[in-house]
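[audit] Reproducing an earlier prediction to check determinism. Same input, same settings, fresh worker. If the tokens differ from the archived copy the diff job will pick it up downstream; this log only records the rerun itself.
[audit] input (467 residues):
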Amino acid sequence: MKKNTRGPAKRPALRQEPITVTIDHLNVDGIGVGRHENKEILIAGTLPGEDVLAAIDHEGQRRIIGKLIKVLRRSRQRVTPGCKLAKNCSGCPLIHLGYRHQLDFKRGMIEDALSHYPTLGHVTVHAVWSSEETFGYRTIAKLAIAKVHGKARVGLYKRGSHQVLDIGNCPQQHPLINQIAQALREEIEKQDIYVYNPVSRRGLLRYVAIRVSPQANKALVTLVTTERNYREMTHLAKWLKKKVPQIIGVHQNINASTGNVIFGSTTVKVIGAGDLIDQVGDIRLRLSPTSFFQVNNRQAARIYAQVQSWADLGPKDTAVDLYCGVGGIAMHLATSGAKVTGIEINEDAIFNAKAAAELNELGNCRFIVGDAGEILHDMQRELSPLKVAVVNPPRGGCSEEIIATLGQLRPQTLIYVSCNPYSLGRDLHLLTQQGFTVEELQPVDMFPQTAHVESVVRLRMDNSEKV
């Protein structure tokens, strides 16, 4: 008789019954948070004060991920989402919250971020500037591609999974983005394009990135593939442009990695224009396929105008723009005639910025590629006396080196443009220790229906003699 070496048979997992949860608050991602059996439970699509029926999707040692089944007690702040995919799509976590209340939530998030620092107790957070367009404002889309039973899907990942949810005629996207996405679906099926499968790690086409100029109603399309395939991508690109004449150029980005990063390091032009000319405020910008830029042009223009007003530069002044990206803020400052230097580590962005400075005939605006902290430190003598410094860092905030160097440079005015309230709070606290005083904080709603919020902050340096 053979010995049983397989061990005892596993008992089938017990099917858990739905649970009732009271939602206490929204987290920084706009997800409802409650408690269940002494654990935090996160349930998307819920609001504070609501009682909801939920299923448990995943349970960890300290946290549970739940899925909304039904709202039992409805918040007065709840609205009916203007999208049939809202329940499963992760793109608009606040779409069920009335817009006025979205603004209140974002203001409260900034106030909470500052409340951790006694040095910021005097700071008043102004009411959030609302967006004129709460839908249809997104001018940039990075969409995943899948093929299921021969049908192409172009969209976002389904909440809590790696399944691509086809977004159809998404109300958040600029109409031209939706038009291009639909043309791509049709051509993938018609041409039987080999779409990448993340499970088997085989296939060609992975993502599409679409960048639109709302003023010109033109678009730049980037097809992200696992390898260079000139013939197939050229054929696809020509058909896309034929279906959507507003496409001025199609590029191919090669990303052979198995991770979730969208872009690889190599981008080549397939057909048409190499970049897109867009106008924001008074400045024309040159945008390449993979360079970063804001998704809401109108709100970006308001931020630029506010920075320009607070800077109050003249022809004899000097200013620096750190983390300058494609140069939008720096060039707006340069229209004053001041000498402006923009610093950015991304080479493509600096290439765009230099080209745009020529396009706008701003010879007093220069751009330097490299680490902002290192370059700022090395240029202290050249930049002094510095009237205005602008910082617009990524979500992680400013480096300690930049904060220390700003303290040494002592610009009259420092303007901080932030996309993360919590790194902003930390950095403002550190800047006060360098001698800066926070004078004004203006939040801007760049991303309606999401939990993201921008802030523009004016700080003043006490330039009295140190004892």
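[audit] rerun output stored. Observation attached for the diff report: The CA atoms of residues 135 and 172 lie 5 Å apart.
[audit] end
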